[in-house]
Amino acid sequence: MKGTVIKSTGSWTLVRLEDGTRHECKLKGNFRMRDIKHTNPVAIGDRVVVVFSEQDSHGLIVAIEPRDNYIIRKATKLSKVSHIIAANLDYAFLIVTLAHPRTSNGFIDRFLVTATGYYIPAGLIFNKIDLHSAKEDQELQSLKKIYEDAGYLCYTVSALRGDGMESLRSILKGKLSLFSGHSGAGKSALIKAIDPVLAPKTGKISGFHHKGMHTTTFAEMYEISSGGFIIDTPGIKEFGLIDFEKPEIPRCFPEMERLLPLCQYKNCSHTHEPGCAVKSGLIDGTVSRLRYNSYISILNDR
Ligand SMILES: Nc1nc2c(ncn2[C@@H]2O[C@H](COP(=O)(O)OP(=O)(O)OP(=O)(O)O)[C@@H](O)[C@H]2O)c(=O)[nH]1
Ligand SMILES: [Mg+2]
Ligand SMILES: [Zn+2]
Questions:
Q1: Counting atoms of ligand 1 from 1, which one is nearest the CA of 128?
Q2: Which domain CATH number covers 44?
Q3: CB 183 less than 6 A from any atom of ligand 1
Q4: Does the CB atom of residue 186 touch ligand 1 within 6 A?
Q5: Within this chain, do residues 30 and 130 fall inside the same structural domain, yes or no?
Q6: Is any atom of ligand 1 closer than 6 Å to the C-beta of 204?
Q7: Is residue 238 a part of any domain in this protein?
Q8: What is the pLDDT of residues 70-102, one digit of tens each?
C-alpha cells in the first residue's frame, strides 16, 4: 500500500496511508546500509510502499519512491553527515522573528539559498508582530521589501493575535509546506493558529536569553482541516549549507541571477569582474547591501 511518511524518529516511522489511516512502520533493513551520507534514510514527506503481514502489528516500508525534491542541512558547519529535513515539498517557509528570539539576516539567507538551490519555492513568515516596537515595525517593512523584491513570498503574522492567518491559510491550501526556524520562533504556535483543531506542543521563551526551549523534538506533518499539510520541525541554531559549489551560489540569489544577462561576463561571480550589473545595482540601490553581504559571506565559506 502507498503512503506518506508523517513522522520519523529514527527507530520507527509513522506513515499515513492514502485512506487517511496512520500506521507505525519499520524500515526494511537494507535501506540503512545504502544511504551513508545522510543520517536518515527515510525522510518526512517521503512517499513509500508499505506491506503488512499477519505476524507483525507494524507495517514494513519496502520501497521509497524517487523524491521530487528535498531539503538538507548539516548539523553544524563542520559535520560530514547531513540530515534530510523533508522531501516532496511545495513550499519551504522560514518563521522569522525580529525579537524573542532574534533571527539574523545571515540565517535567513542561508535558509533561502538552500531552498532555492534545491528548487523549492521559499518564503518568510514574520511572526510575533504583536510584540513589535515602532523600530521593529520599520525594520520589518524594509526586510519585507528586500525579500519580496528578490522574489520570495513574505507574510507578516501573529500566531497569538491571529493577524495574517487568512492569507497564510490560502497559500498553504492543498500544498505540502515546511516550517523551519529558530526554537521559540513560533512554528508550532502558528500551526495551532492556522487550524485550532491541531495541537502541536508549544513552549516558552527563556526570560534571560529570549530563546526557545526546543519544545518540538521530531519533525511531524500536520493535516490542515481546510486542506493541505504542514511539517513542523525542531528549532535550529545554524543552517550549514551543503552540496553547493561556489559556481552554483549566484543562481541561489534570484535578484542577482536576474541581472546576470546584463553583466559583461556570462559567468560573472559579481565580485571582481568589470561591467558587473550586480555591483552597479549596489551603487544605485537596486540591489540590497544586506543580501550582497550574505552572498559574499556564503561564497567565502565554499
Ligand atoms: N507574543 C507572541 N508570542 C508568540 C507568538 N507566536 C508564538 N508565541 C510564543 O512563543 C513561544 C514559543 O512558541 P513555539 O510555537 O513553541 O515555538 P517553536 O518555533 O515551535 O519552538 P521549538 O519547537 O522549540 O522549535 C510560545 O510561548 C508561544 O506562545 C506570537 O505571534 N506572539
Ligand atoms: Mg515547536
Ligand atoms: Zn556580475
A1: 31
A2: 2.40.50.140
A3: yes
A4: yes
A5: no
A6: yes
A7: no
A8: 998 876 666 777 889 999 999 999 999 999 999
